[in-house]
Amino acid sequence: MKDNTIKKNKTFYKSMGLFLLEGLLSGINFTMIFLIIRNIIDENFSMEKIVYYFVGLAVVYIIRNLSYRKAYTLGQFAGADISSDIRLGLGNKFKEIPLSNFTKTKVGRYINTVTNDVDNYEKILTHNYGDILKNFVLVLMLLFFLFNFDKTIGLVSLISTLLLIPSLYLSFKEVKKHGINKNLAQSDNTDNVVEYITGIKTLRVYGQDGINNQAIIKSMKNYSDVSYRYEVNILPLSGVCNIVIGLGIPVSIYLVGLKYIGGLIDIKTAIMICTLPIFLNKLLGTLYIALTGYKNLKISKANIESVFEEGEEVKSDLDFKPKDYGVEFENVTFSYDGVEDVCRNLSFKGATGELTAIVGTSGAGKSTILNLISKLYIPSAGAVKIGGIDIKNISNEKVFDKISMVDQNTFLFNDTIKNNIRIAKPSASDSEIIAVCKEANCHDFIMEEKDGYDSIVGENGGKLSGGQRQRISIARALLKDNPIVLLDEATASLDIENELLVKEAIARLIDKKKTIFMIAHTLPIVKNADRIIVMDKGQVIESGKHEELIAKKGKYYAMYLADKDN
Amino acid sequence: MEYIRERLKIILKWSGKNKKYMYISIFLGFIAGLLIMVPYMGIYNLINRIYVDDLSERTVLNVALIITVSVVFRYVFFTLSTIYSHKGAYNTLFSIREKLVVHMSKVPLGELDSKNRGEIKKILNEDIEKLELFFAHHLGEVVMYLTGPIAVFIYLFSVNKLLALLTLIPLPIAFYFQTRMFKGTGEYILELNDVGANLNSTIIEYITGMRIIKSYNMTSSSFTKYKEACTDKSVLWKKIAGIMGPNFASFIVALEMGLLILIPVGGILFLKDVISPSIFILFLFIGSLYLMEIRPLLEIGGHFSQVLSSVDKIEEILALQVFEGGEKTFPQATDIKFENVSFSYNKDEKILENISIEIKNGEKTAIVGPSGGGKSTLIGLIARFYDVNSGRVTIGGKDVKSLDYTTLLNNIAIVFQKNFMLKETVFKNITMGKDYSLEQVRSACKKAEIDDVIMALPNGYDSMIGGHEDRLSGGEKQRISIARAFLKDSPILILDEATSNTDPENQKKINKALKNLFVGKTVIIVAHRLSTIVDCDKIIVLEDGKISKVGKHDELVETSKYYSTVWNKYKISRDFVYKEGDKNER
């Protein structure tokens, strides 16, 4: 899989070939000038020659124009195809990356890679490559010319050219060294600005915005100072490099002059050679800039590659036909970051067709349980079993195929409401969809929308409220009709009208006799659950039926009392 | 042109006292540009001498030395020019950021809210950063890239007027093709923006929605949509490239076509002995190529349009009206009065219409109503997050608009729905930049029922929270916010009730903390849940931007249709139990 998507295609090479041709043809200018100088010295320049050169040059310009336009267009075509191919490759890759990798920071990076890195890669590929190639060819031609005229001058020019290498090396090194500080200051400042804007209401109420917030002002000032220091560190080096390379001009000219005086070269050669170093220098300057851009291409390319290199989900062809849908945790230990265990040696059972409620203080590990059942994450030790089968070796798709999730962050596509529900069962008829929407208490609010079921929900469902989204999520679960339902009963975060509607919808989903795991934030609502699991710090500290737990007078009892007071 | 000139004026105004760095930079860039000419002159001199066979070692050495000096100084000046331009640039960027932050602190928060927060972040970070291009690069480089060719032209002109003028012929031709390129692609570029935006949002949806895509096994259909968006962009870009290619090629080749004119004209002049051979050679060499120097200007032109659009976005924020002046003494009594207040964010939609309420000093008032009914807007008018369109809001008989804005905010504590934590220590998160002793802070935290939680953190009050250090639960953050309000101890307290999922024990502590906080203050609660407001002195029912009823709980249950329905629902919801068979049905 690795790397086979970032490849340049045939069109790209064709385009580069044409750029090369155009570069070679532009070298004819020098040849022409040289021929004329020779004519002048030999005193055989004439009207015929003028016509001859003019026509020849005109033809060359026409060919150059044609090959450049073809090269440019093909280059852009190739770039468009290459970036489209990379994007498709990345799109395919994302399907294989385990969902647990889709953390908030990583998602940001993925998006940045698919959008910006691919754009950068394309831009440099189509823009800098051609420039590099053309200038490189011209430099080679010039060096060849110079060597032909005079070895010493050729050597001096070759040395100036080769000085590009240490110059680039040094400047990359310096950029890298000082760039770290700048990047740190930049991301620091970005973070601070984001924090500042996010909290602007609170900050203002406490008189901490604007000039009074020295933290943000200092951060911005620091970023400005560090950026400036970065340039002060980098710029002199590139100035020195330019001078060193530029000194090729006077050195060559001095040598030419001496050699001419010493009679070692003739007049034609002398005239010709003393002009060429200037052009060589100009070409090297362009090459220097183009190659610096090439460095950025490598950064973008590395970012793209790092996505391609991410670990993939383990594929498995094992059949998944559990005898029932009871879920069992056997000594499960798990950690999100590999350092701090969120749960340790966790064992419990939720029998098939039963409602298991999970309660406990925030941060106790309640949602981790749901994540482990749906195989979003895999335990570091112990086993999660469905119907007696350890799901570790079952492919994610097959596990998903038995599970419906209803959570607080229902993701919606920028599509119609109908299509957003239909994803649960692509073959569902409109009347089936309406039926589940009625059950999930969605129908009424959908009919109030301007286009009913065909209303567009906006980017990530932005036009719908939290309660409406939860109900859509329930409608999906009803339509998909999977045997296991994982539910975060987040109704306490809703206003009172939504709260009741969502509760009713959940109640109907529960009545479908599924194996249900429900995180509950209030207690009385789950007192009829078949089993209540009380969690604290990653451990099940109590479990049983409501009456048993009340009788125990432990944590559950304390929570229950607190709830009654609220 | 007028548009560009106006923007340029604005940009230069922003650079303020940093202008001097810009001028130094431009001046140094100008000198560096002039120095480009020296090697050409030296070489012409040399060729001339060679041709008339009058070359001495001394001349050679002189020419070489002069060129050496010119090369060294050219890059020294150029480097200094860019260092100065960067100094000016980054100083200016900072002062624009500071200006923006300070300005934002004086405009109504509602104005900032109406802009997307993401948009403001983008302006502060990215858009301002784009101005660096202008200050650090465009100013100096434009001068240098133009000075070089102009200097060479002047030099050529001094040698031979006719030939020098002929070297300019490629310019209008090149610009003709450039204009044609922009004209031909204009409409597609607009389309490209849309297609690009669609591609971006499709990518974002595809990646952020991967979890749902996978769990509903819809990888192939989502991928199809993603693929289409990718293909759309590549197809459109090819269309654009097809139009640009020929024009761009003609542009580039035209800039290099001086030789095509100079060979015949110069050749004839040379044959007729009008010009010397060395002049002919000079023009063949230099005259045919010096225009290529201006090629980088084309790219600068492309970037410049981005700079201009950034300027517009920054200006949009700076154009917002600020609060200024006002009375600095805050009234003793804090009765709050709304007198015929109307408000709307835009003209089409009235959010509040003709609201009149009186909230007495020390009273506890709740506002209830359907979401979108204007509850948050109403409290926003007290703290001047927005300003009324008509009518007035008074505190102790004084119009809030007549009070000094800072004084007003100093006397109102607000606990928001979302609890914002600074990336700072717990201590600083509670003092919020003011000087309080640890004892004062702890006593506030005790009243907010959070002291024990903080003391249990690894570093107690010095523990870092906020940002990635997310150690506190939603309920705990809520109590930190309450502790802040305790310290602030303002006579007016506004509470936008939090609607987070806290566990029962946490919720109990929050309720207790709030009860402590309410003592002796004029309290206004935006209620999303009914349990907390039953014992309020006054409940305002706000529906569709109008007050439908005001009264105590017991009265409203009888008189307000909305309130009684919601109260009934609340009771059903409170007693709701899953797996109760038919008992839940209404």
What do these coordinates show?
The complex is a heterodimer of chains A (566) and B (586). Chain A is an alpha/beta fold and 566 residues long. Among the domains of chain A are: 149 residues, ABC transporter transmembrane region fold (Up-down Bundle); 151 residues, Rossmann fold, CATH 3.40.50.300; 74 residues, Rossmann fold. Chain A is built from 19 helices and ten strands. In chain A, the strands form two sheets. Chain A has a six-stranded mixed beta sheet with strand order 6-7-8-3-9-10, with helices on both faces. Chain A has a four-stranded antiparallel beta sheet with strand order 2-1-4-5, covered by helices on one side. In chain A, a hairpin with a 2-residue loop joins strand 4 and strand 5. The longest helix of chain A has 50 residues. Chain A is elongated, with a radius of gyration of 36 Å. Chain B is an alpha/beta fold and 586 residues long. Chain B has three domains: 189 residues, ABC transporter transmembrane region fold (Up-down Bundle), CATH 1.20.1560; 114 residues; 222 residues, Rossmann fold (3-Layer(aba) Sandwich), CATH 3.40.50.300. In chain B, 62% of the residues lie in helices and 10% in strands. Chain B is built from 22 helices and twelve strands. In chain B, the strands form three sheets. Chain B has a six-stranded mixed beta sheet, with helices on both faces. In chain B, strands 2-1-4-5 form a four-stranded antiparallel beta sheet, covered by helices on one side. Chain B has a two-stranded antiparallel sheet with strand order 7-8. The interface between A and B is large, with 164 and 162 residues.
Describe this structure in a few short sentences.
The complex is a heterodimer of chains A (566) and B (586). By secondary structure, chain A is α/β, with parallel strands linked by helices.
